[in-house]
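Pasting as-is:
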Amino acid sequence: MSVPVISVAQMRQWEQASWDAGRSPSEVISKAGQAVARCALRLTRDGDRILILAGKGHNGDDARCAQAHLAGRKVRALNVQNPAKDLAQLDLLLAKRPKLLIDGLFGIGLDRPLDAAWNDFIEHINQANIAVLAVDVPSGLNAETGEPQNIAIYAQTTITFGAPKRGMLRQESSGFVGRIELAGDIGLAPCPFSAEEIQWTVAEDFDGFPPARRVDGHKGTFGHVAIVAGSEGYHGAAVLAARGGLRARPGLVSVHCDRAVYTPVASQLQAAMVHVFKPALPLPPTCSALVLGPGLAATELGEAWREFANEQWQTFPMPVVVDASALDWIERGPTPLNSRRVLTPHPGEAARLLGLKANAVQENRVAALRELSARYGNCWIVLKGHQTLIGRSTGEIFVNGSGNPYLAQGGAGDALAGYLGGLLAQPKLQAQPLKTIRFAVWVHGLAADLLSSVKGTWTVEDLLQVLGEKG
């Protein structure tokens, strides 16, 4: 199940509860070291150099323990006792250009400013431009506030233990933390803080999901998603959304686009039906989910689109996903009882809907999500970006840890909107809307991770070829 995002104090309480329950600190350190090693092996190749920097505390113990499990790598370890005296040795080791540096200098207990010697030591690491795997938290970063203690190491990846710490998810810490890898099972007792407001999504949340399909099913069994998308100059968004919908494997996918782009949209789709949008024409009676908005930035039917979007938002009995241009068309206020409504803004769109600047949204993404949901009838919000958030005005908010910066390219959001709509069109998945939304976001990010692990360059078209794969 998902993992709570906790404070440093809670982590300390959890550790103490584990010792009181008879768990061994040495066994926990051993498992933590093995987790660090597994992550380092994924980030490197056979024969690569790895440099381990280990401090005095348990964080250093975790890093030192990893060394025995790095078979096939050329590993050097530097036990740092005095940063001023050890600086020359650091520079010699950095000059060998290791493929990866494992940072085990300071852990989550650091809550004081670092002195000049440590500042100089960490600055040499940052200037070396070598990929860093941070152990539990990047050294120098306050795991509670997310702020550096004068200076902090810039890590590409941080492997954190037990549960993510609150400060690591703050916007200002993202440049230091990089990608978060969670080592949840390191031998601690069960987490006593499972009911926290913010939850971290893990792959195990989706074991056995989506459920198996009936062997006697047919097209009508698995739903029909209608995607209202595509206008002049933006026909590609409709195509990408449709392909995303098809990857979710509903029974049917239909696209309703502006007349001006009917030919290019229809010519690129084989399995999806394509229609010219007509405001007075009702949706197909088999339609079980609706996606509104991708590629509707330029159309002569602006008012007709707006009226249609609002009418469907208020009256359509099945799930509605609103993305891109259509976000500006939905009127605030309540939605029908038990309706499944989803808005999928990126930070700039969320800021526009809230009358804020984008940096204000980024400074408190949880508050922005809560307010958006409250304004639009307690609908589900997918607040996209680094560590996409999924939730509503009340209840738990889930942080998605899959994905990488290469998702920041035009069309990725269109593919997600279509994929989400294609999932929500399926009756079995409609019964679990939150899990289905979370699954869509997680799989979308996972597709980007799978591609980045095997290809140096990829496009949204490539993403659609692996979208839906679970590794």
